[in-house]
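In this section we walk through a basic example: taking a raw amino acid sequence and producing a predicted 3D structure, encoded as discrete structure tokens. The instruction is simple. Fold the sequence below.
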Amino acid sequence: VIVIIGTTAWLIAPSIQRPFEPPPGYTEHTTIRIGGDSDFNPDNGVVGGNGTAADPYIITGWYIRTSIIWDGAMAGIQISNANVHFTVRDCYISTSASNRDWGVYLSGCVNGTLENNNCSGNEYGIYLGFSSNITRSNSNCFSNQIGIVLNAECTDNTIINNTCSNGGYGISLSSSSSNALTDNCLRSNSHSGIYLISHCIGNEIARNEVSNNGGHAIVISSGVDNLIHGNAILNNNGVTSTYNASRTQAYDDSGENSWCVSGETGAWGNYWSDFMAPDINDDGVVDDPYMIAGNAGAEDCYPLTYNPL
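The resulting token sequence is shown next.
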């Protein structure tokens, strides 16, 4: 299935037709749609202040069945053109039935925080477009077609400590730069764990567990100056414990990205479950580089012999 948003085409997994019910303790709320700073009010789920920076807004504790129609898609919480500080915390957002739903949708926002949310069974669990300085942390995106999406000029955002599992793709970036993807778990998705398309520049992908995905753990089909290091890359793309150069766990069609770092404190790349030896000098780094699939000859020059997480 190909979905076109603006000028960007997304390849997504088949629909996952399953509504999800929250655990006890959530209060059901209608879908929330905020079109600017003046829309942060109790009718739109605001329960008080302490979203930081002079105490702006917090939305928390709601269970939402997605049903807002927006450009042919849907969103449980949709926030657009917001400059104030806000936090969306401890919300459970699940598809109603159609699986054309978006859990949390942010566009044109700055200074927002999304934390401890559960977005399950949607098309996109959490979507971000034309936004910056957004932190997304400690959220569970389960059984979505794409768990977390950064699309269309997203810059300087932090994606940390999230789990994206049992969907189509874990995290996907498009035309986005200078974002940090750290300490996330991308597990058991049918396609890739992390997927960068449409000229992504200068993003850091570090200390993530990317495991048991049907496709490559990390794919960079278009992008430069991205830094990928310290990740635990385990059993993706159908690999076995025996290294096979024709079937590896990552793909880079650019060759202008760095899959390892080096400096005064040493050199390290990533841990690959199919490539842990030889290490003749016992320095924790495999003596040979790990070759990355693609036409650019990319490689991890310092593959680790141990799981760094």
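Looking at the output, two observations stand out. The chain is about 0% helix and 45% strand. Confidence is low (pLDDT under 50) at residues 1-17. In the next section we compare this with other chains.
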